[in-house]
Amino acid sequence: MDKDTIITSKADEFLQMFKKGEEFTKELLKENEKLRFKIAQLSETMARTGDEARIKIYEDRIALLEEEVKSLRERFMQVEQENKDFASKYVEVEEENNNLANLYVASYQLHSTLDFSEVLRIVLEIVINLIGAEKFAVLLIDDKTNEMVPVCTEGMTLSDAPKVRIGDGTIGSVAKEGESYFAYDLSSEVFNPLEPIVCIPLKIKEHVIGVITIYKLLVQKAGFSNVDYELFNLLAGHAATAIFSSRMYTQSERKLTTIQSFLDLLKEKPKK
Asked: Taking the model in full, what pTM does it have?
């Protein structure tokens, strides 16, 4: 069953719940009208007969009917509250489904190419569109120097992004420990390349290959929801795998081209 069918089914169920609530309201109004009619009849009868015993019976019946109406009203309020809860949960599930669908598409795009530059471009688009970041950078670890070097940025130049040794400061600690960092104030306007408001490790299992540092969110993004934190975790894993694979492939292709060029050069060398 595809996503549209699931969403349509949920919407039909949701409408059916509201329809039941509407029917229940109509039933309550009818019962209330019946009660008023019976009270009017009782008033007429009491005025004609003056029979105290009969009046007592009617009063007891009225009290019983009033209790039933009260019970129906309480049930109606309970159903109405349940409908509101269902509506809220429906919206939440719908939003989560949309985010998961977007993440699925993004993950597919990440793993659809082994071109390193293309993978980095896709990562930038995902962080902008799914996370809602305006200014951020992707830093990868250089095994030779043991420091993180910026490879792509958004909203800032590559020279503005920092080079950080593993273990130094907030960014270096995230790379060393492999745990995400979130600043208390996500709306800070002060730009400090060494102090991002969010820093996410790019991990393949427990091995960190780099980080995503976010310095500013889009205007419409006031903060992060629980779904966003799940997206961060999933994105970090998929992006890390795609970046690592494409980087290894690019390096092997470059080495293969170099070797092939060397072999071609040897073949062309004139014989003595």
From this structure: 0.61
